[in-house]
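User: Show me an example of a complex going from sequences to structure tokens.

Assistant: Sure. Here are the input components:
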Amino acid sequence: MNYNWNWGIFFQPNPMGTGTYLDLLLSGLALTLETAVLAWIIALVTGSIVGVMRTLPSKGAYWFGFAYVEFFRNMPLLVQLFLWFFVLPEILPRAAGLWLKQLPNAPFWTASIGVGLFMSARVAVQLQAGIGSLPRGQKQAATALGLTTVQGYRYVLLPMAFRIILPPLTSEFLNTIKNTAVAITIGLLELTGQARSMQEFSFQVFEAFTAATILYLLVNAVVVTGMRILERYVAIPGYITGK
Amino acid sequence: MKHFRSIGLALAATFAVSQASAEELTGTLKNIKDTGAITLGFRDSSIPFSYLDDNQKPVGFAMDICYKIVDAVKKELKLDKLEVKLNPVTSATRIPLMANGTIDLECGSTTNNAERQKQVSFTNTHFLTASRYVFKKSSGLKSIDDLKGKTVVSTAGTTNIKQLTEANVAKGLGANIIPAKDHAEAFLMVETDRAVAFVMDDILLASLVAGSKSPDDYAISKDAFSKPEPYGIMLRKDDAPFKKVVDAATAALYTSGEGQKIYDKWFTQKIPPKGLNLNTPISDELKHEFAKPSDSPNPDDYK
């Protein structure tokens, strides 16, 4: 291989005048984390609501949940972000579209909401499965105790369902972090985007992507460890997931 | 490690023995002679330098130059037959594919600058382009100063976005600079009013405008962000014998006047696939460069 390795490149100043190349990558990492956290909050909240809707006795709620999940999970994330960013403002009334286009940090908000909604469909399906895995007697017992549907979910079903799906939720959180990389398509310079601009500026392509890979691995290792601790912390002896 | 090296040496020695009787060729030339093939890297949408026509065949100004280089290499190595392989590259893959030997020449619109020369070599410059911006005529922009406080887009990782950032600070424009993934998307941002202007090499802007839905709606600024910068055909670094052949071939092409003929074909006439005409006559700087070919990365050398 005829390649000029230069690992010192990270400590050389980047041409954007914002410090070194390492600073460039770290600013991308910060943006990746911000986007991922916001997206994950959106995914958890809307995913939980939709997931619950899919298990309600109401036919309407079930069908809404079904349509929501199929809409968001059956389209590639890349296409969804493209639709949110470029197509949505065009089909809105002109004034609203223009307002949307001129929002500051539009790529960041679009990416967070877009990735969040995409992941929410996956959270919804898992929560539905979690609730479905509980014995039917649980729900009946809650009703027999005189709990309303809301109380039954709040005090009986959801505390167990969430504990059951905690391990797959960890994977979904990791996916959320990795999926933010798709946002370079709408001009969000997160970690992958900055690695790309680093290789364009310096032509040190292998160094740039090695660093990005290591940063992704480190972040995900931290998340996995954190979720393990959370799992142990919330475990209740006697529950299905307790020891 | 030591073990590997000794195996490598043994292998090299074996090859050296079998080759010693032939010729003292090294690097890319040796490789081309041994395999009877040369691989050209092409871009799929760098109009008119290197792009796919309606038969999905790579064509363009840089491709024509590369075919001339291939002829020269064939002559130099006294080969009866030289197979030309074509390999698509993107801005992200061109360096690894060049470094690992997949492609021998990159025929596209790669800017030749000092920083990149640490990684690859460039042959004589085949085009010069300055950073300008494209805007909708209806927006009433004229100069760089008119961008004050506006949203401006450029392609991430290009020298253009760097120049825009510098100008933004130097002139106190306070413009909101947003990066786009590629040229098509940056242009889309102007088309959909997400940004008022797109800063890029003027020739690429001209081709984007010519290929847009309504070319008459757009104009390209007179003001430039930079001096004209050179484009070069890329080859592997530290391969002096190959570079010598390629440099000689391009120099002969440019000084003979044939270079300008190829230029006119791609920049002043209708080109496939849609019959666009870029209407960009050769600049004085490039004319001057063709008369005295140079591979310098420094824009000041092309006055």
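The lines above are the inputs; the final block is the predicted structure for all two components together. Chain B has ten helices and 16 strands.
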